[in-house]
Amino acid sequence: MKKFIVLILFGLPILSCNSVKKEEVKKANEELVMYQFSEMALLMEEMYKTNEVLKNKIINNEDVGEFSDKFLNIHSAILTDPKDRNDSFEIFSKAFIENQQAIFSASQNEVKDQFNIMVNTCVACHKTTCLGPIPRIEKLLIK
Ligand code: HEC
C-alpha cells in the first residue's frame, strides 16, 4: 500500500506533463480522486486554445484583437509541482509574455513570424520543464 501511494505521488507531475489524452485523464480522475488539474495546467490549456484561435485569424488575415491579460497569470498560477517555478521558469515566462504581446504590435508582414517566435518560446520552456505536450504545441506553428 505504501509503495502504491509513493507511486501515485511521483506519478502525478509525470501524468500532467505527458501527452495523456483527455479521456485517460478523466478516467484517472475517477480512479484517483486525488488527481486534479493544477491552476497552471488549466491556464496552459486556455493559452493553447486562445492561440489556436489567434493562429486561424492570422492565417485568414483577420484582425488579431488585443493581448489577453489572463496570460499574465503565468507569473502566479499554482503549478502541479511548485518547485518548477525556478529562475529558468521565470526567465522563460517573461520572454513568453513579451513575445505574445509583440504579436499585437507586429505589422501585417511580421505577424506570422512573431506568432511562430511565441510558439517557439512555449516549446523552449517546455524543453526545460515539461516535455509531454511539445508535439502538440508544435502543431500551433504557422507553416
Ligand atoms: C515558462 C514555462 C512555460 C511556458 C512559457 C509555457 N509552458 Fe506550458 N507548461 C509549463 C509547465 C511547467 C507545465 C506543467 C503545469 C502543471 O502541471 O502545473 C505546462 C503544461 C502545459 C500543457 C499541459 C497542461 C495539462 O493538460 O496538463 C500544455 C498543453 C501547455 N503547457 C501548452 C503550452 C503552450 C501552448 C504554451 C505557449 C502558448 C506554453 N505551454 C508555454 C511550462 C511552460
Task: Describe the fold and architecture.
This protein has 143 residues and is an all-alpha fold. It folds into 2 domains: 36 residues, no CATH class; 102 residues. It has 6 helices and no strands. About 7% of the residues have low confidence. The structure holds heme C. The site of heme C has 26 residues, from helix 1, helix 3, helix 4, helix 5 and helix 6.
Number of domains: 2
- The class by helix and strand makeup works out as mainly alpha
Poorly predicted spans: 4-13
**Topology pattern, helix = H, strand = E:** HHHHHH
In total, the number of strands is 0
Question: How many angstroms does the end-to-end distance come to?
Answer: 50 Å
Q: Helix segment count?
A: 6
Bound molecules: heme C
Strand fraction band?
Answer: under 5%
SSE arrangement:
Layout: H1 2-17, H2 22-31, H3 39-59, H4 87-103, H5 111-129, H6 134-138
Helix pairs in contact: 4-5
The chain binds heme C.
Heme C binds at residues 16-17, 38, 40-41, 44-45, 47-48, 51, 79-80, 84, 89, 92-93, 96, 121-122, 125-126, 129-130, 133, 136-137.
